[in-house]
Sequence to fold (718 residues):
Amino acid sequence: MPLDEGYYTLLDHLFAGAMLVDSSYKIQHWNRQLVQWSGLASEDVINTPLKAHFPHLMQAKYKSRFDQVLAHGTPAVFSAQIHKYLIPLQLSKGGHRIHQSSVTQVFIGSHKEPLLLFLFQDQTDSFYRSRELRKLNAQLEAELEHSTHVDLRNQALLEAIRQAGEAIVILGKEGEVEYCNRLFAESNGYDEGAPPDREVIFSNFSSDDEQWPTVMWESVDAGECWQGRIHARREDSSVFPAAITLAPVTDVDGEQARLIMIQEDLTEQVKIEEKLLQVRKNDALSTLVGGIAHDFNNILSGMIGNLYLAKRDVSALPKVKERLERVESLASKSAEMIKQMLSFSRLARVEKSEFPLDSFLKEFMKKMIGELSNQGVTLSYLIEPREYLLHGDMSQIQQMMEHLINNAVDAVSQRMCGEIKVSLSIEGADVAEKLQKKHRELAEPPFIHISVADNGCGIAPEDLEKVFDPFFSTKLSHSGMGLAAVSGCVSSHHGVIEVSCDPNEEGSCFDIWLPYKQ
Amino acid sequence: MQVKDEHIDTLTELLNIGVGMAAETLSEMVDSRVRLSVPSIKMVKGKEDIDAVLNRDELLGITSVGLQFSGAFSGSASLVFPPKAASSLVATLTGEEVGSPNIDDLRSGTLMEVGNIVVNAVIGSMGNMLQEQLQFSVPQYVEGDLVDLVGKQQADIMLWAATRFEVESLEIEGSVMIFFEFTSFDALVIELEKLNDRAC
Fold:
């Protein structure tokens, strides 16, 4: 076999298209693979000019590179990505094979001049497979991104539910507890990570209406939302009022898939409701008491005037005059009681002015200490040294302090060593903030704090809420208007009053906070 | 053998002739004006200094097309693109948008051909001017760190030529790096001396 034939046979066995072109651009070999791919028989191609079959290859953009390969021996590559194909090679199903071509300089057998070896590597499958893979990859990436987005959103939702200001429980289709959030676990005394069974949760709920569980489950089974007020018992057996909403949640097919329970702690709301009720009651009483006191005060003024005239008329009758004086004394006491009633109903005449409360209290306390010195009661006071400017009615403040100290004196009367301590201070910001949360009617801090504490008999817990009610008294000889008048006076000065009685300690303590005049 | 400034100047000129030819070929291929220039070249000697250059941040994660040559002087030549420049160049040459998923499909083939054109032109023109016949390997396309790419080659001298591409007002920086063994570089210097003598 001639040498050239040996090379050509070798090229025929390649699984790639191979073409040899000489320096005059005549085709010297056209391998079997090219015959198959192009449909051109080798005898129709060999020894014919390249230009005759592929005229475009004579364009400068191709030929200059072929020339370079011939001149310098540097191989040239024509990528499938830029050219798709260098020469048209058909596919059996139609269309052209996408191929990468390389052109290298070779010296073969009898040829003295260098030849150009064109190698065409079919990349059709890998080109389309790569494109398909790219498409699939893009789809996968989009799905992954969507899934990540959904995951992040679910995590955010779950975290929002976990940190929600409402106690939330999610029940599964079979009623099993799937999830309870932090607030539910904390307020009901459960472990957030291991919520109890549904039976345990619901057995700790009770209501005055014994039928509530039946009504609740019937509503939920009917696909309706149930709402009601219950008493919830914590693990430590303490009970708090709560509003429960139990709502069915449907899946995409509209089937009931889960139940969501929202529990709202009503402790604060109940307190506010009770306070509101108390305010309304006091308002009604205030109107009633104020009306009666006003009318009675007018009548009493007439009675006292007439008593004065009658006393003058009977100056010659000492017995009658003495009786009239006794009536006059009783009328004065009645007038005092009327004053208290008017003070409670805030109908008393108020004449406010700015005055230093510390100087006023100091003088008042000195006077009271003197008066109580022979009653076996130790009265002391402590005034934090600073300025206490109050915009108020001095006369009312004096009456208020008198009532509080008289009340304390009554409380310690059974004690061997009765002690009453009065203090005056300005409230710090931390306490002021708590007070404002509790008493929204309070203006901006700072607040003047007056405290009257005794070591007396104290107040029964059930009476604590009632001590400021008018006509409430645990002693038969008392009118029950003293503390009501104190409460009225504090309200007239836009302040608040609280009473506390620690069962572990003796006595009680009245705390008054009044706005500081800045 | 001592390398003089005039040798470097001659090499710079040879490289510029080579990239000029490459620019012409690329312009014809993409039917758009492509300009290529090599403003200066640097010579780096010794394995340690070469490694220091190859470990520069801008040469990590690069795209490179290289081929090996042998003959009167031997070594390898690579055209190196930082990743961003590579994507911009592919987008410009193919008309695809940067960021398009098709860019990845087109990337290897396009850069291989561009690299092939530039490196062939540079080394071919060097061989031609120095009147030396060289043998070449087929070009290789590699993505990765250049230090891994050329680290295995026992190069003693590296010529590092910053190359500037201008395609339709887009400027892209790349580098042509040519690695030689000492003995091979000595042969190159001798050829450069001969060329200078001929010029005189």
Q: What stands out?
A: Chain A has a mean pLDDT of 86. Residues 190 and 196 of chain A are 7 Å apart (CA to CA). The first strand of chain A starts at residue 17 and ends at 21.
